[in-house]
Amino acid sequence: MAASIFTTTNSGGPYNGRITSFVVLSCVMAAMGGVIFGYDIGISDVYARMRADSDVSNYCKFDSQLLTTFTSSLYVAGLVATFFAASVTRAFGRRTSILIGGAAFLSGAALGGAAVDVYMLILGRVLLGVGVGFANQSVPLYLSEMAPPQYRGAFNNGFQFSVGIGALSANLINYGTEKISGGWGWRLSLALAAVPASALALGALFLSETPNSLVQRGREDDLHRARILLRKIRGTPDVGAEIEDLVSACATSKSSRRPFRDFMRRRYRPQLVMAFAIPFFQQVTGINVIAFYAPLLFRTMGLGESASLMSSIVTGLVGTTSTFLSMLAVDRLGRRTLFIAGGLQMLASQLVVGAVLAAHLGDDPRELLGKGWAFVVLIAVCAYVAGFGWSWGPLGWLVPSEIFPIEVRSAGQSVSVAVNFLFTFAVAQTFLAMLCHMKAGIFFFFAGWVAVMTGFVYLFLPETKDVPMERMERVWGEHWFWRRFVEGEEEESGSGGGMDGVMKQ
């Protein structure tokens, strides 16, 4: 009985179609935005400055405001840029936003590689942030709209898989450039971001627009192009049901002239809550403890510089592998199952790490964690990364990108990305100080949030697998809690008969 209260069923059913090479190639190219995002996360140069802070507390080895400013400047720029990206994505399409993001990435990589002082480094990082703002706003939407509904989870999780590949590549490059004599390895690390940035910028020139975006424009020639494109994407001429849903949904979107203001209406309350809650919870899992400062953490445990970097490579491999497994499982098991199972796994792992550090690692930098206990911590961290990799990592991007009605989709995605960047910035700015003051307790702090978010998913997130995006409002109307906000609205949103003549052309 409890299961029937907290879950919903798919009453819409999937559309006709199959996975085609066209949609696979388009989505792979678009997902290059995730590679750059992951690379920018992983390239933060923490290990090179550890040598200067070897005589302080194990938990306060390194507390540089310059590093946190460098790391966080990307997310501040991304937060601002995503709201501009919302207007571009709505008016000119997902492809245009991806193209702008690729160009900004290229500029930032060039400036970072050629930097002669820290100000040029930070400016390059800001340009990378603009690229991240545009790419993270448009790429998840692009993937969700292009994918067949029954495989949408796998395609969209490819974004997080690409983020993992980017972060792993950055860790490998960090490991290699550490060996370069002359101290210029950091310049190579930053400049190599131009490789995936070039692929994204050039690839975006050849990407097709999504049928959803074409229909949303409402012009007769765009509707004709959307029908032809949809047949090509789905590999079947029988796309009438999907076109009908798109046209009906876009008829509603024509009345939405101010999507950010409309997003605050009562009927969109479930999506608004999720747009805030899911990215917030994704950041307070504590993943940035690993993603930003894994070398620092492992160095604190007594591993040398090379060993700590190698350990972060191992965790990167674990995370990327688990995200790939999530791609295979998400459309079979559903979003809720992976969210809850991954949350419980992360909770247990963080409790183990916190307990070991609290019991065996004090403040004195001369008393390091023994190799046996360091191995236990490494295994627990890998288990945590695996849990994140198949749950809150990819699903934190997937679920927001698929739940918004098309009339507020660009606005909703921007809110979700902005909240993600805001709390990424907050964690990046405060983590080192929190580690210094809370010591091992920081892992219990994040574990508490993991417990809260797992309970939140169980109670308030309906299952969305197999549900076409343009029929997604039904899952809220069937949910025990959210239906009170959307009751009586389905009839209003179903209007749009004036488009029937166009639809049948």
TrEMBL record:
Membrane topology reported for the UniProt record: Multi-pass membrane protein
GO molecular function: monosaccharide transmembrane transporter activity; symporter activity
Compartment(s): Membrane
Sequence similarity: Belongs to the major facilitator superfamily. Sugar transporter (TC 2.A.1.1) family.
Protein name: Hexose carrier protein HEX6
Membrane spanning residue stretches: 21-44, 64-86, 98-116, 185-207, 272-294, 306-330, 337-361, 373-393, 414-435, 441-461
UniProt entry keywords in alphabetical sequence: Membrane, Sugar transport, Symport, Transmembrane, Transmembrane helix, Transport
Gene: HEX6
Annotated Major facilitator superfamily (MFS) profile domain residues: 26-465
